[in-house]
Amino acid sequence: MNRDLATRIFLTACLVLAAQPLSARQAQQASATAAAAQVATDPDTTLSVTRHQITIGSRVLRYTATTGYLPMRAEDGTPEAWIFFIAYTADDADRATWPVTFTYNGGPGSSSVWLHMGALGPRRIRLTDSGDQLPPPAQFANNEETWLDFTDLVFIDPVLTGFSRPAQGKDKSLFTGVEEDIRSVGDFIRLFTTRFERWASPRFLAGESYGTFRSAGVAQYLQQRHGMYISGISLISSVLDLKTLVFTPGHDLPYALYLPAYTAVAWYHRKLPADLQALPLADAVQRARDFADNDYVRALQRGSALAADEHARVRAGIARFAGLSEDFVERADLRVSDQRFFKELARADGETIGRLDARFRGHDRDAAGETVESDPSYAAIRGPFTGVLNEYLRRELSYRNEMTYEILGGRVQPWNWYGNATGYTNLATPVSATEYTFRHLGGDPALPERVRMTYYESGHMMYIHAPSLRQFTEDARAFYAATLRRRATTRP
Predict the structure, then answer these.
(1) Which residues have C-beta within 8 Å of that of residue 491, sequence separation ≥ 6?
(2) Cys staple from 360: which of 28, 377, 392, 483, with CB 3.0 to 4.6 Å?
(3) Could you tell me the sign of the dihedral formed by the alpha carbons of 165, 166, 171, 175, in that order?
(4) The pLDDT of residue 54 is above 50
(5) Is residue 30's pLDDT more than 80?
(6) How confident is the model at residue 490 (pLDDT cuts 50, 70, 90)?
(7) pLDDT for position 308
């Protein structure tokens, strides 16, 4: 991050392990299916503009929703892509002072539906307080936790997600890579800011999972390419350094970074030893963090030179904090990958642990396998979010489009990583990996003062858990208020 980028960062992390749900094979299959449905003609770019209101506490908030495509064109005017967006703007706000937040999810390959209908938008999917789905069909209701109370919102579906597509004759590889994605999303933000006259507004980014990785690049791209500075960034279930997440032979860092998240999951499922189980969640996680940062890291660094007595002590510690048997930890050579953990923690119960949200449990056909066959947490939310989004677009936003709205799929594969990672990873974004990354940013010594980190007792999409959603909104509100106060007090 550049020293002159005075951007404030609101960072969220979840204390129960989470991950992106698609396997590589599933992604390839989804990509092949989606390729056959590539849009053959330019879409209708007529915007749907509708007006609404929502009651937040005792206040009535009136707002306008603008839904449709923003055509992205080359300098010669030829279309390159059609990017779908949904923007919400408060009717009585002064654009010179009222912020606008550009928001998206991750994947890569995810639409913005999760943050849109799960947390930030004025309408929210109806779930139980714990995040379980209700009997179908899914429904939506007013979201009193909407960020629209303190910022306008622009939900962006990157190319090949949602309804967004490349223009006719444009190869998808122009958009399916780290740098390509940053450029197309950044150019959309520049164009939207110009067309809807938001250059005077404080501008924020809010991304989840891979969307946090995107935000880091987009903030730099906007600054360097367009001279556009960002006031603040919300990193939700953050991942900025992909090597902290990838389990490969000879690369031991992720094993230590994941252990505190394993402790959180085991605590939730009551798989820890009695003394740890009796602690508050944050205290149990902190003890695991202390062990991982010291004894475990040193043991991993020693490799085959680790003394037998130290090996035994560390083995016992891993088993204790992960809720696993010492025998299993020994057979894993002190290195328990996320996939093995999801399969092993509740194996004795004949169940597996969710990856997107590890509070959820499910069953595999092969109870003896090493890795999970599916993600029960994704199965619980995919259908409700898909149904709600499609109904909401047509019924409330008066927008109609007969293409498939790509919620989360493999249409973006293969993804060009440009050496930033070993490949597409369906891994978690654990707390300790995020903390490790921010401890090693280097550069501006004042940067830590501009970073605020918060934690929630739920999964990757912590907002499906009602208590976490309420706290998340209050934390975000405080972050925006502090950032805007700083902006106001530092003006000449």
Answers:
(1) none
(2) 377
(3) negative
(4) yes
(5) no
(6) low
(7) 96
CA distance 463 to 114: 9
**Among 460, 475, 473, CA closest to 265:** 460
Distance, CA of 361 to CA of 387 (rounded, Å): 23
How distant, in Å, are the alpha carbons of 46, 267, 427 from that of 276?
58, 8, 26
Residue 38 binned pLDDT confidence (cut-offs 50, 70, 90)? very low
Residue 21 — very low, low, confident or very high, per pLDDT cuts 50/70/90?
A: very low
Domains and CATH numbers, the chain: 8-243+382-489 (3.40.50.1820), 247-376 (no CATH)
3-state DSSP of the chain: CCCCCCCEEEEEEECCCCECCCCHHHHHHHHHHHHCCCCCCCCCCCCEEEEEEEEECCEEEEEEEEEEEEEEECCCCCEEEEEEEEEEEECCCCCCCCCEEEEECCCCCECCHHHHHHHHCCEEECECCCCCECCCCCCEEECCCCHHHCCEEEEEECCCCECCEECCCCCHHHCCEHHHHHHHHHHHHHHHHHHCCCCCCCEEEEEEEHHHHHHHHHHHHHHHHHCCCCCEEEEEEECCCHHHCCCECCECHHHHHHHHHHHHHHHHCCCCCHHHHCCCHHHHHHHHHHHHHHHHHHHHHHHHHCCHHHHHHHHHHHHHHHCCCHHHHHHCCCCCCHHHHHHHCCHHHCCEECCCCCCCEECCCCCCCCCCCCCHHHHHHHHHHHHHHHHHHHHCCCCCCCCCCECECCCCCCCECCCCCCCCCCCECCHHHHHHHHHCCCCCCCHHHHEEEEEECCCCCHHHCHHHHHHHHHHHHHHHHHHHHHHHHCCC
* Residue 161 structure tokens: 């997600």
Asked whether 433 and 11 are in contact (CB, 8 A), the reply is: no
pLDDT in the model for residue 306: 95
Backbone angles phi and psi of 472, in degrees to 5: -60, -45
pLDDT for position 243: 82
Tell me the percentage of the chain whose pLDDT exceeds 90.
66
Of 434, 467, 403, nearest to 165 (Cα)?
Answer: 403
In angstroms, the CA 461 to CA 358 distance is 11
**Mean pLDDT of all residues in 261-283:** 95
**Residue 11: its pLDDT value, please?**
66
Does the structure show a pLDDT above 80 at 419?
Answer: no
